[in-house]
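#structure-requests
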Amino acid sequence: MRSAPGGPVRGSRAARHARRRRNRVLEIVAGVAVAALFGWFLFGRGDGGVEAGLIGPASPAGPTGPSRLLALSVSGTALPHMAVVGAESDDRPGAALPIPMEMITVVPGQGETETAQVAQLPGASMQVALSNTVGAWADAYAVITLRQLAVIVDREGGLAVDLPLPVTTAVGVLGPGSTALTGAQVRALLAVRSDDAPTYWAHVLEGLLAAPPTLQTGDLAASNGVEVVQQVLDGAQGAAVLGFPTKVVAGTVTVAAQPGLDDVVTEAFGTEAPVPAIVQNGNGAPGVGEEVGRRIIPAGFRIVLSQNAATFGLPTTDVIANGGEHLEAAKAARKALGIGRVGVSQVPSGLGDITIVVGKDFTA
């Protein structure tokens, strides 16, 4: 983004990383139907004994790797414009991973959810959903309305994008080539509904990160602090915009391609591949699944199935290792939750390494 006259110049880091930029994001849609297989459980003592550092940091206060992450959503159109942005670290440049616009992802506490519905969640819930999607905790989140984005663009002197082909919008034809967009033109570009809409979002995202704007009070519709959001944006200056690996299931449903997605995330953000976890709400209280996600995702887990248990009112939370080889992961999850008893299933689930059945002892 170009600075307003007399404003700060931020081109040095962008120039340093320009050679590292990759191809722009492809349009990706994802969804998957999942089922869990459970056996009889042999429970151990719930003494809470857990070794430190089994999976990763158990505190939800920080990121899971060298890159500090931001869950970003631009609202105000029929299309979901979301991304996870990672700041530069000592050994890697910044990176941004746009979220596919028509994907179905597992949202902790809600189960399989379309991306468009994720974009409608409150900011803190969107933070948990996107963190779970990419398998790495984003400790910052921000929601910007399209109107707010237009104001920011105009205040910063425009947004430079490179459109390979001309795009017909409500305010005229934009591009091709390097184009300086006004706020109104950015709004019009992101409102275009076509097969190329994800590419337009990638162009805008790349332009925003080329020289991140200086945020002001009122610029964000929701966040966990303008300062923390600004820190990640500044750290992501010149970030590469990456593609989201997918595959088609049953000829109609597109899902995240694994281990491709985890490979992209670990390479871009320096995180570890997450441990797959099944979460069942045996508590009955609303919001339990999301709070479980908020606690265990930063500790190195991804919720791959989120559903109600067969019955509510279970008195105790059980953290089950689906096979003895996953016992240490179960202990780490129990530590992140701060409650429950650890057990071992004699029959692997075939889906998650651990299963958490939330009882009445868990409070959000």
